[in-house]
Amino acid sequence: MTADVLVPTSADEAASLYGDGAGITVVGGGTILLPEMAVGRARPGRALMLHRAGLGTVDAVEGRVVIGAMVPISALADAPDGVLAEVARHVADAEIRRSATVGGNIAAAPAADAQRGDLGAPLIALGARIRSTGAGGERIEPIEEFLAGDRAGRLVLDVQYDRFERRSGTAALRRRHAHSFSIAAVVACARADGSDLRIGVSGVGPTAVRCRTVEESRDAADVLSDVDPIDDAVASAAYRRAVLPKLVRDALDQLEPA
Amino acid sequence: MKLIVNGMELDIVSPPLTPLLHVLRDELDITSPKAGCQQGGCGTCTVLVDGEPRRSCLTAVATVDGASITTVEGLGDRDALSPVQAAFHRHYAAQCGFCTPGMVIAATALIQRAGGPVERADVLEALGGHYCRCTGYVKIIDAVVAASRGEVDQIEDLPVSVAGEPEVQPKGSPA
């Protein structure tokens, strides 16, 4: 069966063609959808292809950074903020990062056998907000709420975060080869005076999670009240429980002035 | 849709969501990009899209409408191998050969981008998404480093055509 293909030429047209998302398969870079199609797990009936819809720029607007959903992850390697670039450089490999998009990394549902969305942790730590459209129209919400909600009926338009001087820390455990998902990854950001601490953890469950308990207590051991690690092919839940507090400790230590 | 494949402008009739890999192999009979895992994980389908290496199995053809595509057929030919191809030959960097097309394309892009000699660490980074299941990595890395330094002798021991053997002229070659 050949899909009915829609190719909007603006963000507004994309939003209107998407409607409430019913029966629509969104095609960004294709790096998640095409493998699913290759093995017959996805058979799009109506495909909304976003490559001509704009949404492909990183802009600085009134003290905010606005990253369009179609910005390739390779472009984030040169992003102004260190933590986003640092994590982006660990997504898949350079050739896949040229196709894979920021919107797909945020919007795609986790697969049965694979996590997705490595950018969740740094975006949570940066206090990012997601602008999306779907049933009920456009809305902007914190990324941790977007990830925790039902993303199936939302089309991500862009990601925004405020620009100010931050201290940041990252700590992660990964397998050595380029395509392995993280065992666990922690990103922490705070203002120069240590206030506004935000901590994102990814790799330990289906989506990235914000660690509000640790933000409050600043005690790394509390991370296990914020996240409940899963068993998967990459690592066991027990191992993740053992290493996570140490990774959080590492990330928090990097926030201290040198 | 149109693609400029190895310098030739071609009309494409495959449906828009068709992977570029299958457009090249099935519609255009250009078979150097291999259908390996078709999940983006092995690297052997890698081609240059407007000069940048990308996975053709992960690329819906409509998203590269109008782009310039380079495959191994566009790099060199039997009488004039490209520097990377010649280095792979010189260093015995191909065993079964299945990963070679993707490795050669990625290495070519690395050397073009660097514009001069590259280090082994650069090669590891650039080829990090490419699997050689014969595990011939050492010789592959040797070859790429040698090609980047221009240490590629003229190859004179290529197998010559046997009389009566049909001349293979791959489609998609600029020749």
Q: Can you tag this structure with a few keywords?
A:
heterodimer; A: 258 residues; alpha+beta; four-stranded antiparallel beta sheet; 11 helices; 12 strands; globular; B: alpha+beta; Ubiquitin-like (UB roll)
SSE layout and pairing:
The complex is a heterodimer of chains A (258) and B (175).
Chain A: E1 4-6, H1 11-18, E2 24-27, H2 33-38, E3 46-49, E4 58-61, E5 64-68, H3 73-76, H4 82-88, H5 94-97, H6 102-107, H7 120-125, E6 129-134, E7 139-142, H8 143-148, E8 154-162, E9 166-174, E10 182-191, E11 198-202, E12 209-210, H9 212-217, H10 223-226, H11 237-253
Parallel strand pairs in A: 1-3, 2-3
Antiparallel strand pairs in A: 4-5, 5-8, 6-7, 6-8, 9-10, 10-11, 11-12
Chain B: E1 2-5, E2 8-11, H1 20-27, E3 46-49, E4 52-55, E5 68-70, H2 83-90, H3 100-114, H4 120-126, H5 137-148
Parallel strand pairs in B: 1-5
Antiparallel strand pairs in B: 1-2, 3-4, 3-5
Structure description:
The complex is a heterodimer of chains A (258) and B (175). By secondary structure, chain A is an alpha+beta fold. Chain A has a domain at 168-253: Enolase-like, domain 1. Chain A contains 11 helices and 12 strands. Chain A has helices at 11-18, 33-38, 73-76, 82-88, 94-97, 102-107, 120-125, 143-148, 212-217, 223-226, 237-253, and strands at 4-6, 24-27, 46-49, 58-61, 64-68, 129-134, 139-142, 154-162, 166-174, 182-191, 198-202, 209-210. A 5-stranded antiparallel β-sheet of chain A has the order 4-5-8-6-7. The longest helix of chain A has 17 residues, at 237-253. The relative contact order of chain A is 0.13. The mean pLDDT of chain A is 92. Chain B is α+β, with helices and mostly antiparallel strands. Chain B folds into 2 domains: 2-74, Beta-grasp domain (Ubiquitin-like (UB roll), Roll), CATH 3.10.20; 83-148, Orthogonal Bundle (DNA polymerase, domain 1). Helices cover 29% and strands 11% of the residues of chain B. Chain B contains 5 helices and 5 strands; from the N terminus they run ββαβββαααα. Chain B has a 5-stranded mixed β-sheet with strand order 2-1-5-3-4, with helices on one face. In chain B, helix 2 packs across helix 5 (137-148) and helix 3 (100-114) packs parallel to helix 5 (137-148). Chain B is globular. Chain B starts with a strand and ends in a 27-residue tail after the last helix. The model of chain B has no long low-confidence stretch (mean pLDDT 91).
